[in-house]
């Protein structure tokens, strides 16, 4: 074997080793990112999850509004990327506890009975004005001592939460997407899809509650979303009971 041939063979071997090491490194990093994503969402390989949809998506023919469809598509892509499976259920048929399967609950407490139950149990510091009569506080959020009013098409708010209810470490989380309007639910699912890695780095696999603001949805749709605040502590602290007005009765 001549010197030139030997150099060529050695070069090919070195290139092959480098390519193999590069492939192994990329595979390792990809698997590590996948495991972190699966841990954050509580979705190991071949696990089951629930997509709980509200009244508009749970009619007799399971007709789904446009923004609900987009929200479900965002979540379905996340679930598929984790190698898990999803079951879509209407809010009034999801009669089970939480912790066994990851749950994604979409919709406000008026149209989603499951969401209303979760808010009472898990978010006692959040109150949604469900008064059907028109008024400045219709649909407003109260979180702790702060109130967030709805301005349709201009400023709309949505609560995005990952909750484990203080259960065991292996318990699967519940994700809540509680918005003032349907488009805000879609905005929250898109925000989670885009920022789940950053959220996982910041919060780990613990509970958190974020208040998001959807800006000018009339022009930008669900794409322009701002983080207003991390309201975890306020949302999990029960609101004080409203003061009862006393009526004095004087003897005649």
TrEMBL record:
Q: Where are the transmembrane segments?
A: 6-29
Taxonomically, the superkingdom here is Bacteria
Keyword annotations of the record: Membrane, Transmembrane, Transmembrane helix
Report the protein name in the record. Answer: Secreted protein
Q: What is the lineage of its organism?
A: Bacteria, Bacillati, Actinomycetota, Actinomycetes, Kitasatosporales
């Amino acid at each position: 074997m001549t010197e030139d041939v030997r150099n060529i063979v050695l070069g090919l071997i070195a290139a092959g080793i480098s390519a193999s090491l590069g492939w192994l490194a990329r595979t390792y990093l990809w698997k590590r990112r996948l495991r972190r994503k699966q841990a954050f969402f509580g979705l190991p390989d071949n696990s089951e999850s629930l997509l709980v949809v509200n009244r508009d998506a749970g009619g007799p023919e399971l007709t789904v509004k446009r923004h609900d469809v987009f929200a479900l598509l965002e979540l379905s892509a996340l679930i598929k990327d984790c190698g898990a499976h999803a079951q879509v259920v209407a809010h009034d048929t999801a009669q089970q506890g939480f912790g066994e399967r990851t749950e994604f609950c979409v919709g406000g407490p008026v149209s989603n009975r499951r969401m209303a139950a979760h808010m009472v149990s898990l978010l006692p510091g959040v109150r949604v004005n469900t008064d059907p009569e028109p008024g400045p506080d219709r649909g407003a959020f109260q979180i702790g001592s702060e109130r967030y009013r709805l301005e349709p098409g201009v400023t709309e708010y949505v609560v995005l939460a990952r909750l484990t209810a203080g259960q065991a470490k292996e318990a699967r989380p519940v994700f809540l997407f509680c918005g003032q309007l349907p488009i805000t639910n879609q905005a929250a699912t898109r925000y989670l899809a885009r920022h789940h890695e950053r959220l996982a780095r910041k919060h780990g696999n613990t509970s958190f509650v974020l208040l998001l603001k959807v800006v000018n949805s009339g022009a930008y749709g669900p794409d322009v979303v701002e983080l207003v605040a991390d309201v975890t502590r306020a949302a999990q602290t029960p609101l004080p009971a409203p003061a009862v007005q006393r009526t004095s009765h004087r003897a005649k």
